[in-house]
């Protein structure tokens, strides 16, 4: 099944609006307004489920969208692009059928991506954000909790986007 | 597939996109932020849907007015911490002064808290230099208290704008009028107290026949017009015996309540002008 890029762009725009807007504040927690990172969950989903070359392009596109949503251009595009490309290379050995695996993967990737984005942002903006560690950790945990639900939604949207979710086991590829 | 449509390899695609991303990273923020600002302007009605939160404080597109550079932040942080430390020190000094004032018999005099800069105990005298002077209202002759014991340790012998010298009661050239009182007794025996130049003081000119003085009696610095409203404790009688040269008088040795080496903070009794005039 071929990836439908125009639909992907529309979907990405909607996800970006959700990520950047106030809607997700309804489910934010703590005084730090921690909320799940929809774009990061989307990154993991697409990196795992689409062809590796498409995944590279999709990862950078999602990173670009995350930069637009975050207000600082560059950090997310580099981070998401590199991490998404790396994850896409693991498609043949990693299959996330169970929710716990999806949550664990999202949690780890969110931690790594959060650290990288903050590092790159500090180079670019020369600004300090307080409670960085708590925000990254909290965001990763919340994304991991919300991840499987978003994953289910993305799976239902998969055919419309031209994505074939991987259902096979690791051994079937050998 | 994208790479088939564009006819480029995966590696080329990755490298190209990574270069674009790095370009976004290195291009100054003033230029790249236009994209983010455009996004937030175009989709503002959609982005504003929902409860306002943290994003309104930080701004989705990075409102420059709400940020400072890291160097400025560090500078402000240091100023904030220094002010905080200063506030804590002022609070501590206020508590010390309140305690000293409450422990004084008549808590009317003004007190100036000062730190000990240097302590000098030698053959030339027993002196302490403190970090308060005429700018704080300190004048020669004023009594000085040990804040930990609330006892008189000496008096001001020299004063400058921001520093002053305290001559301790143990200094051989220090003379003050003191009174001896025993617990439960009505007698208040007054006499001059002179430092012995070592670690104590001596009280003379008290007739043996008229006054009964014993070891353990409390010694007070006597009230003095314009300097001390009420007697304040300064030591206790450590030894009493008839004077060797003048057998009709007591030779009284006094042990001050303070240890010079442990004095770190002193309070100077500064009488307000109207009290001086009385």
What's the short story on this structure?
The complex is a heterodimer of chains A (174) and B (278). Chain A is mostly helical and 174 residues long. Chain A is built from 6 helices and no strands.
Describe the structure.
The complex is a heterodimer of chains A (174) and B (278). With 174 residues, chain A is mainly alpha-helical. Chain A has one domain (5-161): Arp2/3 complex 21 kDa subunit ARPC3, CATH 1.10.1760. In chain A, 68% of the residues lie in helices and 0% in strands. In chain A, helix 2 (38-49) packs antiparallel against helix 3, helix 2 (38-49) packs parallel to helix 4 (75-89) and helix 3 (52-70) runs antiparallel to helix 4. The two termini of chain A are 21 Å apart. Chain B has two domains: 29-60, no CATH class; 104-275, Thrombin, subunit H (Beta Barrel). In chain B, the strands form two sheets. Chain B has a six-stranded antiparallel barrel. A six-stranded antiparallel barrel of chain B has the order 6-7-8-11-10-9. Chain B starts with a helix and ends with a helix. The A-B interface holds A 2-3, 5, 16-17, 20-26, 28, 32-33, 51-54, 56-57, 60, 63-64, 67-75, 77-78, 81-82, 85, 120, 122-128 and B 1-3, 10, 13-14, 17-18, 20-22, 24-27, 29, 32-33, 35-36, 39-40, 43, 46-56, 59-62, 67-71, 73.
What are the SSEs and their pairings?
The complex is a heterodimer of chains A (174) and B (278).
Chain A: H1 5-20, H2 38-49, H3 52-70, H4 75-89, H5 99-125, H6 132-161
Helix pairs in contact in A: 1-3, 2-3, 2-4, 2-6, 3-4, 4-5, 5-6
Chain B: H1 2-6, H2 10-26, H3 29-42, H4 44-47, H5 54-58, H6 70-103, E1 110-122, E2 125-130, E3 143-146, E4 151-159, E5 164-168, E6 175-181, E7 189-195, E8 201-203, E9 218-221, E10 232-242, E11 250-256, E12 265-270, H7 273-277
Antiparallel strand pairs in B: 1-2, 1-12, 2-5, 3-4, 3-12, 4-5, 6-7, 6-9, 7-8, 8-11, 9-10, 10-11
